[in-house]
UniProtKB/TrEMBL annotation:
Keyword Glycosyltransferase: yes
Entry GO CC: Golgi membrane
Organism: Hibiscus syriacus (Rose of Sharon)
Subcellular location: Golgi apparatus membrane
Family note: Belongs to the glycosyltransferase 47 family.
Protein name: Glycosyltransferase
Transmembrane parts of this sequence: 20-40
Domain Exostosin GT47: 181-461
Source species, domain of life: Eukaryota
Length: 516
């Protein structure tokens, strides 16, 4: 097996010794701002229950290098495309999460020597000041936009004007989006080699992770080559790849994965000034793997301070919607969305509710247990579809599509339902749905509490035809925010993830301690 740390050879320090060695470093502080209140209370006036991030990277090979060893993840062959249940079988993620969180000492950051101040630092700081001044202006412009109480954005836009109840508040969202297009810049660290860095799966259940990493690598939109100009910094590792190459299913140990993440942060914080100045708060990682949270837990600042863009947005596993972003899980078996989008009108949908999927996790257990053997023609729940029955056509024949959590909180069924124009029914605990900072999920989805699984039919039958038609129309409207385009289009899923990251960056202020 290739060495996991071939991105940069340097003597390995014990991670904590690094924090105590006296170093010439410019310490910057992150001051949490009221902005999140702005974003959560105006863009998202309800309970801060969902979020979503995204961003991009620059770097070496935009071409995926095929690993010389096992490349089955790269080409997606590890998913069983004959079954619906690609979910997370593959890595049998059954170790209790809490065992993986390592309590480490918080670094002592007071001791900094200031003797190495160079012109470079001064220049960097003036750039930083300019960036922060711009962001301050943006914050107040979004706040101002939030004062407009209108269902429709009042900004001009040639492509799309956000409007209607699918948004928490269309006008400040639109303003924020337009400002993002002007100002957002992402720097992708170049350190790290494929296949574990700068690479990721583009098909299968984990496709969102790989697709996003690849988009960042291409960097057509907001990527910058000058790290001093960046608003955020991307740590381009793929947890799917780390697990694939480094996890030994025999002993359930994830230490090797943790070591690579620790080493990587060690390398970039040693070589570049940016990690230390914010303690990672303007850095982000991205993962669709169940173990995204666990992989980040090996570096306490990554876990507690950085922006973590995660499919597994489980608030019981430390997901914090004010700094982390929920990433939609999208299962692209072929890598393409063609044929998945659209469906018949509501009057031609004969099934009330539909689900097919294996018994993954306790919520599925409750659902299957309750409904599978009832064979109720209205609520069709399968662990395995009968032969010859097409999954996609079932989605399209249904009015509501049940989306229970599996081994992790996120379910690819949410996006499948939205693609098929079937109203999603979220059944989960502690899940923050994607883009909840911007989208008003209640307008286009139903949330059923786990304890109400036996009452699903009653709940869904209780929704009036008028209300259903409204929701279904909104599902069609919101679809654009979940579509994966071969080359990204404005307001599509990649841009929305970027927007989630951008919003999180707006919520913090980075300062240089020595120069303020
Ligand atoms: C950042 O801080 C760590 C730990 O204190 C130190 O080892 C590293 O050299 C610092 N990085 C820079 C660029 O000064
Ligand atoms: C690659 O995967 C196959 C099938 O899972 C396995 O039998 C083989 O040992 C793997 N090879 C390496 C080099 O890991
Ligand atoms: C994917 O990679 C695996 C392992 O190398 C190989 O056996 C399989 O044929 C490949 N599949 C495709 C579709 O390329
Ligand atoms: C509110 O939105 C409508 C379009 O939906 C627009 O015609 C109207 O001018 C807006 N009101 C204000 C105060 O901007
Ligand atoms: C998101 O932003 C990054 C960096 O700005 C950019 O490289 C990437 O292309 C964007 N993604 C999409 C899909 O627009
Ligand atoms: C969310 O996290 C908690 C705590 O680790 C765990 O018990 C629960 O099973 C997770 N939810 C899902 C659906 O995996």
């Amino acid at each position: 097996m290739a060495s996991p740390t071939n991105y940069d050879k340097r003597p390995h320090h014990h991670p904590s010794s690094l924090w105590f060695s006296s170093l010439n470093l410019v310490l910057l502080l992150m001051a949490p701002l009221v902005v999140f209140l702005l974003l959560v209370s105006t863009l998202s006036p309800q309970h801060p229950s969902t979020l979503y991030p995204l961003s991009f990277s620059s770097y070496r090979s935009s071409i995926v290098q095929e690993p010389t060893f096992n490349n089955s993840i790269v080409n997606g062959s590890f998913t069983d495309s004959s079954s619906l249940e690609a979910e997370t079988d593959f890595f049998a993620p059954n170790v209790p999460f809490s065992d993986a969180i390592m309590e480490k000492e918080t670094p002592q950051l007071e001791e900094m020597s200031k003797n190495k101040e160079s012109e470079g630092i001064v220049k960097r700081n003036s750039k930083l000041e300019r960036i922060e001044a711009n962001l301050a202006r943006v914050r107040s412009s979004i706040k101002e936009a939030a004062l407009v109480r209108n269902l429709s954005s009042i900004h001009q836009d040639p492509d799309y004007v956000p409007q209607g109840p699918i948004y928490r508040n269309a006008n400040p969202f639109h303003r924020s989006y337009l400002e993002m297009e002007k100002l957002f810049k992402i720097y992708v660290y170049k350190e790290g080699e494929p296949p574990m860095f700068h690479n990721g799966p583009c098909r299968s259940i984990y496709s969102s992770e790989g697709r996003f990493i690849h988009e960042l690598e291409k960097g057509n939109f907001y990527r910058t080559q000058d790290p001093d100009e960046a608003l955020v910094y991307f740590l381009p590792f793929s947890v799917v790849m780390l697990v694939h190459y480094l996890y030994n299913p025999g002993n359930f140990k994830t230490d090797a994965i943790g070591r690579v993440v620790v080493d990587y942060v060690d390398v970039i914080s040693g070589k570049h000034p940016y990690w230390n100045r914010s303690l990672g708060a303007d850095h982000f990682m991205l993962s669709c793997h169940d173990w995204g949270p666990r992989a980040s837990s090996y570096v306490p600042h990554l876990f507690h301070k950085s922006i973590r863009v995660l499919c597994n947005a489980n608030t019981s596993e430390g997901f914090n919607p004010s700094k982390d972003a929920s990433f939609p899980e999208i299962n692209l078996l072929t890598g393409e969305v063609e044929g998945l989008l659209g469906g018949p009108s509501p009057s031609r949908r004969s099934i009330l509710a539909f689900f097919a999927g294996r018994l993954h996790g306790y919520i599925r257990y409750l659902l299957l247990n309750e409904w599978k053997d009832k064979r109720d023609p209205d609520v069709q729940v399968f662990d395995q579809l009968p032969r010859g029955v097409s999954y996609t056509s079932k989605l399209k024949d249904s009015r509501f599509c049940l989306c229970p959590s599996g081994y992790e909180v996120a379910s690819p069924r949410i996006v499948e339902a939205i693609y098929a124009e079937c109203v999603p029914v979220l059944i989960s605990d502690n899940y923050v749905p994607p883009f909840s900072d911007v989208l008003n999920w209640k307008a286009f989805s139903i949330q059923v509490a786990v304890k109400d699984i036996p009452n699903i039919k009653k709940i869904l039958m209780g929704i009036s035809q008028r209300q259903y038609l409204r929701m279904q129309r909104r599902v069609k409207q919101v679809q654009r925010h979940f579509v994966v385009n071969a080359s990204p289009k404005r307001y599509d899923v990649f841009h929305m993830i970027n927007h989630s990251i951008w919003l999180r960056r707006l919520n913090i202020q980075v300062r240089d301690f020595d120069h303020s």
